Amino acid sequence: MSEYRALRERYSLLDICRTPDLATEVTLQPVRRIEVDAAILFSDLLLPLEPMGIAFDFIKGEGPAIESPLRSEADLDRTRRFEPREKLSYVLDAIRQIKVALGGRVPLIGFAGAPFTLASYAIEGGHSSNFAHTKSLMYGYPAAWHRFCDLIADIIGDYLVAQVEAGVDCVQVFDSWVGALNAADYREFILPHTKKIFARLAESGTAVPTIHFGVGTGSILDLLRDAGGDVIGADWRTPLDEAWARIGPDRGIQGNLDPTLLLGPLDRVFAATDEVLARAAGRPGHIFNLGHGILPSTPLEHVQALARYVHQQTAT
Q1: H or E element: which one contains 24?
Q2: DSSP letters for 143-185
Q3: DSSP assignment, residue 49?
Q4: Bridge partners of 170?
Q5: Minimum mean pLDDT range among 6-10, 33-37, 103-107, 206-210
Q6: Domain topology for 2-233
Q7: What does the radius of gyration of the chain's CA atoms come to, in whole angstroms?
Q8: Are 58 and 64 in contact (CB under 8 A)?
Q9: Could you report the per-residue pLDDT of 27-77, keeping only the tens digit for each?
């Protein structure tokens, strides 16, 4: 969006995340321009890493870069616990401002990163195609791995509860890279920690809907359901009805249009949208969404047309 790019010419991504006025403005931008049914807090998954003692920054054209990646058992054990209400208070201040600015127009979704995704960024130093360093520590030092992920789960659970207390209407747990694991590894190394996050939300009495999202998770959708979430995200690789069958009828589903379709002609976008909606078959519990994040080169008018089309096709 041009208005977002104009802000980015003046401020870094972290500047925007850490400045409630700017985070509020960027959160509202798509609500003003696109017929979305919810606002999503402008923030970043990696914000909890710095108070844990894991410094990072964003490199233009490359994405996040960890200053000193964790590469040993001792590195994992040196990370610190912190109180999100203190160290991430700027996020909570932004939530309060956004809620006032929205004025009830649409609900606000908060979010945080899940254990595998946060751990893999901290260990790899950025995104990875094979997660070799992460898996090496996971397999080689399982006790240290579990201590580290347990710490992440404690922090993220408290962070999401704090977001709900600040006013978000729903929270989403992003495990963007967990599709790198097979079912056995997910069950052993990740499921207990992600389950702890959702349990913390339930125990807190903060009764807001929860969404659990991953990419490349077609083979472990049932395990994502077991880990927690009222709604499970499905990417575009698995047809929506097949994904829902794996998740189970007792949960909602979010998805699952391929975001790259928005780079092509609208007739193809609409045809693919029709297929997603047909597979949902009007069942309650479907949140129409992309199967992953929107690409920077996506024409805004295609996103606007998609939102209008979905509303037209699902109007009752």
Answers
A1: helix 20-33
A2: HHHHHHHHHHHHHHHHHHHHHHHHT-SEEEEEETTGGGS-HHH
A3: G
A4: 109
A5: 206-210
A6: TIM Barrel (3.20.20)
A7: 19
A8: yes
A9: 999 999 999 999 999 999 999 999 999 999 998 766 899 999 999 999 999
Q: Three-state DSSP class for 226?
A: helix
User: Which ranges in 180-290 belong to alpha helices (H)?
Assistant: 183-185, 191-203, 221-227, 240-247, 266-280
Cβ–Cβ < 8 Å for 76, 144: yes
Q: Measured in whole angstroms, how far is the alpha carbon of residue 28 from the centre of its chain? A: 18
Say which amino acid occupies 59. I
CB-based contact 215:236 (threshold 8 Å): no
Beta partners for 174?
A: 113, 213
The Cα–Cα gap between 95 and 100 comes to 9
Residues 6+ apart with CB under 8 A from 74: none
- In our burial notation (b when 16+ CB lie closer than 10 A, e otherwise), range 172-196 reads bbbbbbbbbbeeebbeebbbebbeb
Map out the domains of the chain as residue ranges: 2-233
pLDDT tens string 181-204: 999 999 999 999 999 999 999 998
Strand pairing report for 170-175 and 210-214 = parallel
